[in-house]
Amino acid sequence: MSFLRNAAKLFNSVYLFTWDTCIALANLIAPNLKPGSVIPHGRPGAGGKWPEFVPPGKGDSRCCCPALNALANHGILPHDGRNIKFTEMTHAVQTSFNLSSTFSIFVPTFAANMLHRNYKTVRQIASNILIDIHSSQDKFDLADLNIHNGIEHDGSLLREDARFDPEQDKPSLPLITELFASATGKDAAGNLVFTHADLSRASGKRRTAARATNPDFTLNKSQKGFASGNCASLLLVFGGRVADLEPFLTEERIPEGFESRVLARWGLSLLVFNLNIFNIERAIKEEAVPTVMAQNETA
Ligand code: HEM
């Protein structure tokens, strides 16, 4: 059974990445969407009009991801952050940020596997009736994503490490202030923006500091990929624009009038996203400073 399951997973991955390459190529040929028409008509955020922002209240579930928290704060995902279907998350991120269908399925599927749940309701025929089995297995609460060393990892730009902030559901304002101080770019309209180099530099600084102060610090290769993926999302979805990122990162609020900077007709592909991750990650330099563990050992 487990052989069949693994074979099905491999087939799904090959299918998804092949389809993603087709999307990336089609995006190269097709004309871009026009600014102002990125979000489909009738969807939250169309024409820059977002549903009302309501900060989380007592008992609401929140996580380490500013984008998912913001979608819940605007009621695009359930405001209490509970019992969210993985497929609902796919739909919400795809239409709100103009991600490709492949991207929007890949990350939620990864999250479902991480939580040992099913991305979709499993259906089975029993006594000639189609029934849903494990129907609670295709849902999650936002806080479920905070499992340390799942996708959540040390050395993040917006959260203290889990050792110092086990909840991981709120941004760290001192870290975010430091992050904004590292923006040096200007876009065509003269707005302050983050560049790839800014985010590589900020990540290197943050990882160096976290490694030096957190005795539990770990960051493996795939977590580095997620970390640089988060930076890539700030550059691609927000164009690195500091004015839009301030409310998004500090309050987890989508600013009125905001529209994804991804103009590709079929949304941001995993291929383009991964190329950006590669560029950010390879430029990250950590300073060689003694770690807390090494200091403790020599004391
Ligand atoms: C598609 C489903 C998504 C899932 C399951 C997800 C999950 C996560 C998780 C678990 C983290 C914590 C990683 C850490 O420790 O730093 C995270 C961080 C982050 N996510 Fe998401 N995310 C999703 C979509 C998005 C989207 C669409 C965006 C941008 C528009 C985004 C932007 C970010 C950013 C900027 C961080 C960095 C947090 C930090 O450095 O502290 N995410 N996400």
Automatic annotation (TrEMBL):
<dbReference type="InterPro" id="IPR000028">
    <property type="entry name" value="Chloroperoxidase"/>
</dbReference>
<protein>
    <submittedName>
        <fullName>Chloroperoxidase</fullName>
    </submittedName>
</protein>
<keyword id="KW-0575">Peroxidase</keyword>
<feature type="domain" description="Heme haloperoxidase family profile">
    <location>
        <begin position="49"/>
        <end position="275"/>
    </location>
</feature>
<dbReference type="GO" id="GO:0004601">
    <property type="term" value="F:peroxidase activity"/>
</dbReference>
<dbReference type="GO" id="GO:0046872">
    <property type="term" value="F:metal ion binding"/>
</dbReference>
<keyword id="KW-0408">Iron</keyword>
<dbReference type="InterPro" id="IPR036851">
    <property type="entry name" value="Chloroperoxidase-like_sf"/>
</dbReference>
<keyword id="KW-0349">Heme</keyword>
<comment type="similarity">
    <text>Belongs to the chloroperoxidase family.</text>
</comment>
<dbReference type="Pfam" id="PF01328">
    <property type="entry name" value="Peroxidase_2"/>
</dbReference>
<keyword id="KW-0479">Metal-binding</keyword>
<keyword id="KW-0560">Oxidoreductase</keyword>
